[in-house]
Every structure is written in structure tokens, then in C-alpha cells.
Design brief:
Blueprint: E1 2-7, H1 10-20, E2 27-32, E3 42-43, H2 52-61, E4 66-69, H3 72-77, H4 79-85, E5 90-91, H5 95-102, H6 104-113, E6 121-124, H7 127-135, E7 141-145, E8 154-157, H8 160-172, E9 183-187, E10 192-201, E11 205-213, E12 216-218, E13 222-225, E14 230-233, H9 240-260, E15 266-276, E16 279-286, H10 293-297, H11 305-314, E17 328-336, E18 361-365, E19 368-370, E20 376-378, E21 382-390, H12 393-403, E22 412-413
Parallel strand pairs: 1-2, 1-4, 2-3, 4-5
Antiparallel strand pairs: 6-9, 7-8, 7-9, 10-11, 10-15, 11-14, 12-13, 14-17, 15-16, 17-21, 17-22, 18-21, 19-20
Helix pairs in contact: 7-8
Bound molecules: adenosine monophosphate (AMP) and glycine (GLY).
Length: about 425
């Protein structure tokens, strides 16, 4: 098979590495890709993921047998529908289904209608109404821009003053653009967060092993929210009891709810869960693989990724059982200092060859490219996802941190406490 992956970050590099292992794959393509993905796939850096016409034309020109759309923006924007209309076989939810991630108001209403456990909430189109509501609301409270906002449209407000400033930021000043035309105001919850990714074929759901992200930029969960500074898998807090609860009240219920709404979901549903004192609750849904969750989950999956993806497309996932290695993985993101606000790019990355032929170590590229001289340079806020597998989380963590020393670039920044929570487990 010839497979085209749409995207160009660490998640797509991890997907490409898993696909490359498949006996079914002869050739991989990727748009736009990055310098790491280019080692195993033919990349076309000039095509952006939102340039739908160009993506479709490229897929047809290369006569690919399947397209895997990985990032949220093109999924929510309907790239899957356009590829399908052009007669291509595609993995990922169509536009009608990707709204599960594309609108927080939609997903909250869905959970309410189908009794899926989540935080209590109200939705507002009018900032004045939101301000009036907040006057008597209990603090802290959570404000969420309705639409996609690069994972940054969530504000946790401790006081009424902060909440009022938040309404201004989201709905009036439009800090997150049109994503803030609507806003969800949500009850503040406490507990451990767990990410559970799953494959869905419209009817059947198969959950993958659990993972935990570290969203804040700095050690001790301080600093701004980022796309994710590191992950570990499995989460020791995701116990069998939690799994049973989620199977009973959350996973299948979500798939069935989408089908009942006429929005059959095929692809990956990412459940962002919070393990509250009252039990697991859905924090958010994503309609795709997580980044950097994918880096620690897929490297532990025993199944051929292409088999599973094809089963989702064909509606035969009921015949597939997922299997994961009985080990652990940790991913430490090497970022550009200053991320997620302002940072410099274009610095040469050295030491990448240290990962060649090293079993259980992966250097997933997130933001890298070839410069004019053909050297690999930094090209983003998140640059590399240094990932290692070990017998257990402690070993995986030690190995991942050891491997962070193998590569160097100017302004290299990382958190030093990825996976530290496991010491408390
Ligand atoms: P989201 O993009 O919805 O996952 O939100 C980003 C982050 O904000 C989550 O990972 C949580 O840490 C936090 N968060 C979101 N909703 C809530 C909530 N209702 N209560 C507490 N924290 C929340
Ligand atoms: N790592 C969180 C996400 O992919 O949304």
C-alpha cells in the first residue's frame, strides 16, 4: 500500500514509524511532514494541512491507497469529506463527526443529552449574559472558548474579577478569534487527568492503553498551557475500577450518542478524563490522536496499525482486539526556550545519529526542517519528543531523560519532572 499522512508534528512522526513497521505498507508520503518524517516518508513541505485542494491533488497524483488525517484543524474543517468526495480511502472523522472536538458547546450538550458524566456547565452567546451568570457562580470556575484554539482556549478563574476578565478576553476581545463567539462556563473539577485514546469504526470502540500529558510549560505544573511537554504510559492512576466505570458510562455511550445524532464517528476519539473524588468525568473530547500521547502509546501497541485503521474504515473493528506490551514509555519534549509564547527557530540540531539502531529509544521530530544547506534545524516551539520504553515507568523515565542528553540545539528547553507523578502511585 501507499499511504499519505497529513500533518507534520511529533504525533505524525510516531504514526509514520508505526506504519512503516506494517507489512502492508510499501511507501509512505506526508504533507507537510518534517525532517524526521522525511527519513521514512516522501514529504512535501510546501503543502499546508489546510490547503485542501492541494492535499487532494497530491493524494491523487501519488495514487495513494489510503490517507490518514491526523491534526484537528483539517478534521474539523472537513478535509476527510473532500478526500472522500475525490474517491480516496480515508482514516479520520468527517466534518459532521469531528464537531465532537470542534465545538465544546456541542460536546457538552451531547454529554448532557446522553447522560455521559462531565462537569456541569452553561453555554453563552452573549457576553452580558455570561457576566450576569458569573456574578452568583461558585469560584473557581472554568471558561472555555467554544471552538478550536490550539489547546489554549481554557481559562481557570479563581475569583469573580478573573472570570470577568476572562469573558472579556474570550468573547469581547476575541483573543482566540471566532472560537470565542460562544463560550462554555464549566464547574471546576479536581483530580488526576488521564488521556485514553481509542479506535472507533462508527459502532465499535477499542480503547488503547492510557497515558498522561503534562500541559503546563514549567516544572511543577507551573507556567502557561502548551500543546504538551511530555507524556507517560500507562497511567498508574487508570485502575481497572476506573476502566470499568468508563466502559460502562463513557466510551460506548459516546460512540452510540454520535451515531444516534446522525454523526457516525470513524477514527480516533481521545477522551480527556479527570478522575474526580466523585468518579471519572469527561474533561474534553478530541477527534484525533493526542500529541504527545501518541508517542508513548503507539510504540507500545503490538497490532499492525494499518490493520486497525482499515478495520475502522471498513466497520470491522469488532473483529480486532488491541494488544499492548506489558511495559511503559515516557516522552520528554525538547522545546525552544520561550515556547509557547515567543521563541527563535533555525538552530542546527546535532546528535540525532545517536538514536540510530537504538532499540526502545525514539527521537520523534515535532518542529524540524532542512535548511538551505541541507542541515536539520529547529522549526517550532516543540522540536523533538525524546521517547524511551522500559520495563516500568521508572526505567522508561530514566532512559528518556538520559537520551535527552544525546541531542543538542541552541535554546533547548525541557521540563525535568515528566512522569514524576508516578513516584506517588
Ligand atoms: P481542555 O482543553 O478542555 O482539556 O482543558 C485544558 C486543561 O484545563 C485540562 O487539561 C485541565 O487541566 C483544565 N480543565 C479543563 N476543564 C476543567 C474543569 N472543568 N475543571 C478543572 N480543570 C479543567
Ligand atoms: N496532548 C493533548 C492533545 O493532543 O490535545
Amino acid at each position: 500500500m501507499k499511504v499519505l499522512i497529513v500533518g507534520g508534528g511529533g504525533r505524525e512522526h510516531a504514526i509514520a514509524v508505526s506504519m512503516k513497521k506494517s507489512a502492508k505498507v510499501d511507501k509512505l508520503y506526508c504533507v507537510p511532514g518534517n525532517a524526521g518524517i522525511a527519513q521514512i516518508a516522501e514529504c512535501e513541505p510546501s503543502i499546508g494541512v489546510m490547503e485542501f485542494d492541494k492535499v487532494v491533488a497530491y493524494a491523487k497524483e501519488k495514487e495513494v491507497d489510503m490517507v490518514f488525517v491526523a491534526p484537528d484543524d483539517p478534521l474539523v474543517g472537513g478535509l476527510v469529506d473532500e478526500l472522500q468526495a475525490a474517491g480516496l480511502r480515508v482514516f479520520g472523522p468527517n466534518k459532521a463527526a469531528a464537531i465532537l472536538e470542534g465545538s465544546k458547546a456541542f460536546s457538552k450538550d451531547l454529554m448532557k443529552k446522553y447522560n455521559i458524566p462531565t462537569a456541569a456547565y452553561e453555554t453563552f452567546d452573549d457576553p452580558e449574559a455570561a457576566l450576569a451568570y458569573l456574578e452568583t457562580a461558585e469560584m473557581p470556575i472554568v471558561l472555555k472558548a467554544d471552538g478550536l484554539a490550539l489547546g489554549k482556549g481554557v481559562l481557570i478563574c479563581n475569583t469573580l474579577e478573573e472570570a470577568k476578565a476572562g469573558v472579556k478576553e474570550i468573547m469581547m476581545d476575541k483573543h482566540f478569534g471566532s472560537a470565542g463567539n460562544r463560550m462554555v462556563v464549566e464547574e471546576f473539577m479536581t483530580g488526576r487527568e488521564v488521556s485514553v485514546l481509542s479506535f472507533v469504526d462508527g459502532k465499535t470502540i477499542r480503547t488503547m492503553t492510557s497515558a498522561q500529558d503534562h500541559k503546563r510549560a514549567k516544572d511543577g505544573d507551573q507556567g502557561l498551557n502548551t500543546g504538551g511537554m511530555g507524556t507517560f504510559s500507562p497511567s498508574p492512576f487508570y485502575t481497572e475500577e476506573v476502566d470499568e466505570f468508563c466502559k460502562k458510562y463513557i466510551y460506548q455511550a459516546t460512540v452510540d450518542a454520535m451515531a444516534a445524532e446522525g454523526r457516525e464517528f470513524k477514527g480516533v476519539i481521545f477522551f480527556g478524563l479527570m478522575l474526580t473524588p466523585k468518579g471519572p468525568r469527561v474533561l474534553e473530547y478530541n477527534a484525533r490522536f493526542g500529541d504527545p500521547e501518541t508517542q508513548v502509546v503507539l510504540c507500545r501497541m503490538k497490532n499492525d496499525l494499518v490493520d486497525v485503521v482499515e478495520a475502522c474504515i471498513d466497520g470491522t473493528l469488532d473483529q480486532v482486539e488491541l494488544e499492548f506490551e506489558d511495559n511503559a514509555a515516557v516522552c520528554v519534549v525538547l522545546a525552544s526556550d520561550g515556547y509557547p509564547v515567543a521563541y527563535e527557530k533555525g538552530f542546527e540540531i546535532s546528535g540525532l545519529e545517536n538514536f540510530d539502531d537504538k532499540e526502545d529509544y525514539y527521537c520523534f521530530h515535532a518542529g524540524s526542517k532542512f535548511d538551505a544547506a541541507g542541515k536539520i534545524v529547529t522549526n517550532g516551539g516543540r522540536v523533538l519528543g525524546i521517547t524511551a520504553k522500559g520495563e516500568n515507568l521508572k526505567e522508561a523515565r530514566a532512559k528518556a531523560y538520559e537520551a535527552t542528553k544525546w541531542v543538542e540545539f541552541s535554546n533547548k528547553y525541557m521540563r525535568n519532572d515528566i512522569g514524576k507523578a508516578i513516584d506517588e502511585a
